[in-house]
Amino acid sequence: MASDLKWRAGFDWGSVILLLAACLVGIFATGVLRWVAVAVAVLALLFMIAQYKKWNGAGWPSLHWRGMLLYSSLAGLESGRAEAERRDFDREAACRELALKMCGPGKEANVDGMIASLCVERGSYLVSLLQESRRQLALSPAQDAELERRLDGLSETELGPQLVICNVIENTYGRPEAARYALALVEGRAT
Fold first, then answer.
1. CA angle 59, 49, 178 (to 5 degrees)
2. Which of 20-29, 36-45, 54-63, 129-138 has the lowest mean pLDDT?
3. pTM for the complete prediction?
4. Cβ distance 176 to 136 under 8 Å?
5. Which residues contact 75 (CB under 8 A, 6 or more apart)?
6. Residue 159 — φ and ψ, nearest 5°?
7. Could you tell me which residue, 148 or 127, shows the higher pLDDT?
8. What is the per-residue DSSP string for 109-173?
9. Does residue 146 have a pLDDT over 80?
10. CB contact set of 135 (below 8 Å; sequence gap of 6+)
């Protein structure tokens, strides 16, 4: 599992260590090495600020990035269990665990209903969100044409962490924000 710093801020201890090391080199070095260290420190600081804003912004980004980080950990655990039990990876079990962790304790019945529904709906859940909210998304003509082109293929999307995260976003922030997340998925901004 990622560190608590990564969960809260979007950057890990490696970035902090890089920043501190570059600052120390910048303080004690001279000449070109000092300027290189200052440049590295500035870049590390800018990276940390960008990550913090990305992870803690309003709306879907805060849930997406944390959900994907959590899913990577849960998928690793499921993969280990599957290997130990000599069976295939169970994506549905990993997604159910993700939903349970994101929704909190005592929500098992809700999560089971969510997963069952998403297994049936699959990508058509995203399609319905996008079609329903097209006007509110204020798409440019080029974006609208690209979205139209991708909707057919999107309906075949299998159950995965993005569908679970989208459903949690809908339950947390409402359907319009879930539609913005679905659009970000289609446009590749939520990777």
1. 15
2. 129-138
3. 0.78
4. yes
5. 89, 94
6. -60, 130
7. 127
8. HHHHHHHHHHHHHTTHHHHHHHHHTHHHHT--HHHHHHHHHHHHHHTTPPS-HHHHHHHHHHHHH
9. no
10. none
Give the pLDDT confidence of 68-112 residue by residue, as tens digits: 989 999 999 999 999 999 999 999 999 999 999 888 888 888 889
Round the CA-based radius of gyration of the chain to a whole number and report it.
Answer: 20
- Kindly list the domain boundaries of the chain, sorted by start residue: 4-56, 60-187
Q: Which residues have CB under 8 Å from 174's CB, separation 6+?
A: none
The 3-class secondary structure across 8-51, one letter per residue, is HHCCCHHHHHHHHHHHHHHHHCCCHHHHHHHHHHHHHHHHHHHH
CA distance 17 to 168: 34
Both tokens of 143, joined, read 């974006």
Nearest by Cα to 100 from 91, 88, 108, 92: 108
Task: Report the C-alpha gap between 163 and 169 in whole angstroms.
Answer: 10
DSSP-derived letter for residue 57 is: S
User: HSE (CB half, 13 Å, CA atoms) of 104?
Assistant: 2
Decide: 14 and 22 in contact? Cβ < 8 Å: no
Contact (Cβ atoms closer than 8 angstroms) between residue 186 and residue 130: yes
